[in-house]
Design goal:
Blueprint (H helix, E strand, L loop, with lengths): L9 E4 H6 L7 E3 H5 L6 E5 L4 E8 L1 H6 L4 E3 L5 E3 L11 H10 L7
Antiparallel strand pairs: 1-4, 2-4, 3-4, 5-6
């Protein structure tokens, strides 16, 4: 199937599309890109009426929709820096733990 993909493109089959219904918006049949209906199916068994459709996966749009991806002013993708989670260091929250460690409790 990858032989039918554009440069740096990803082509997937119907089985992957069925397993990822939440990603439905990122799949388009290959024939929409090529303009040839014959490119829709990668595999056919005419006697059984079986046709296996191949789809282009729009991975660039998929990445841009992820929370951890940012786009700079030039349109390049960047990983967002993780924000450090500051623990709640209120002494009232530490008192139950510190009470067990008595030498350090009366500071």
């Amino acid at each position: 199937m990858q032989a039918h993909a554009v440069s740096n493109g990803i082509v997937i089959g119907d089985n992957v599309k069925k397993e990822a219904p939440a990603l439905h918006d990122f799949f388009t049949p290959v024939c929409q890109r090529t303009g040839k209906e014959t490119d829709r199916y990668i595999f056919e068994i005419p006697k059984k009426g079986f046709r296996y459709t191949q789809h282009d996966f729009d991975w660039l749009t998929f990445l841009k929709k992820q929370d951890y991806i940012a786009t700079d002013l030039l349109g390049n993708l960047q990983l967002k820096a993780k924000q450090a989670v500051m623990p709640n260091r209120n002494l009232a929250n530490l008192a139950p733990i510190a009470a067990v460690s008595k030498p350090y409790y009366n500071f």
